[in-house]
Amino acid sequence: MKILVVVAVLVVFGVLRLRRASLLAWAGAWWVGLYVLLRFGFTAPIPSSVVTIYMGIVTLAILAYVTSSEERRGDVSGPLVRFMTERRYTPLLGATIVAIPALAAANVYVQMNVPLQPPLFSRTVHPASPSEITVHDAKINLDTAENTFLHLERSNAAEYRQHVENGRRVYYRNCVFCHGDNLSGNGMFVHGLDPIPTNFTDGSIAGLRDSFLLWRISKGGPGLPEEGGPWDTAMPAWEKILKEEEMWEAILFLYDFTGQKPRAREAGEHK
């Protein structure tokens, strides 16, 4: 996280506490503070669609709290009623009435006048993989590696199905939010990502070795070569979260669910 942003928000909260701010001021401060943290407090940018979802939850939580008792409702509504009825606030009230629609109109104008620009440069969707990667301190040769559990499809069908089921759980706990329920790259966060998540159902993974998928999953966006940029996606380096066998099981599930097979090793390649 960006420590300076976090410290700035905490300082504001500290000042409000020293000044014994009203409940209305605290409600506004919590809303603005959490928005600032979500929007500017993280090193890796959070997609705008995710920020909108979280702020919707925050808004409902704050409304539930301030309306949970007669005393709190009075603490919030009292200052608002005085602001709208007392003569001394008339100029400020008039300015507020004009400012709200003016700001909304200005925002619409700015959004409608964003110039359309071509991409800065083309990118390679499937960049060439390195010959070797290190996952959890173990070196994996991508030219010779195969899915650890793939051979079970013929030798032990029951155990193979168990690993597919494990991969299904890994996928729906970690990947579904971007890649979608049906693996077609249409998860709930897709609108905030560029490039959009991989569509596993369009046949593209049938042209890839399963070791290629292990490389992309384990290293994520941070491990993408320059030729794969520009990159503005949330794909993390899953090796920091998942075990190697969990990633292999997820790959097993991707091919099983979509009815595809990983690209076979061509004649002349290492065995």
Quick overview:
The chain has ten helices and two strands. It is mainly α and 271 residues long. The protein has two domains: 3-113, no CATH class; 132-258, Cytochrome Bc1 Complex, Chain D, domain 2.
Give an overview of the whole structure:
There is one protein chain. The protein is mainly alpha-helical and 271 residues long. The protein folds into 2 domains: 3-113, no CATH class; 132-258, Orthogonal Bundle (Cytochrome Bc1 Complex, Chain D, domain 2), CATH 1.10.760.10. 53% of the residues lie in helices and 3% in strands. The chain has helices at residues 3-18, 23-40, 48-66, 70-85, 90-112, 152-155, 157-174, 176-179, 210-219, 244-258, and strands at residues 132-135, 138-141. A two-stranded antiparallel ribbon has the order 1-2. α2 runs antiparallel to α3 and α7 crosses α10 (244-258). The model has no long low-confidence stretch (mean pLDDT 87).
The number of domains is 2
CATH homologous superfamily assignment of the largest domain: Cytochrome c-like domain
Largest sheet: 2 strands, antiparallel
CATH top level assignment of the largest domain: Mainly Alpha
Annotation field: number of helices: 10
Count the E strands: 2
Rounded mean pLDDT score? 87
> What percent of residues are in strands?
under 5%
What is the radius of gyration computed over CA atoms, rounded to a whole number of angstroms?
26 Å
Classify the fold: give the CATH topology of the largest domain.
Cytochrome Bc1 Complex, Chain D, domain 2
Q: Widest sheet: strand order?
A: 1-2
SSE class: mainly alpha
Shape call: elongated
Give the terminus-to-terminus CA distance.
45 Å
Helix content: 40-55%
Unreliable sequence segments: none
What CATH architecture label of the largest domain applies?
Orthogonal Bundle
Topology pattern, helix = H, strand = E: HHHHHEEHHHHH
Protein name: Cytochrome c domain-containing protein
Organism: Luteitalea pratensis
GO molecular function, one term: metal ion binding
Keywords: Heme, Iron, Membrane, Metal-binding, Transmembrane, Transmembrane helix
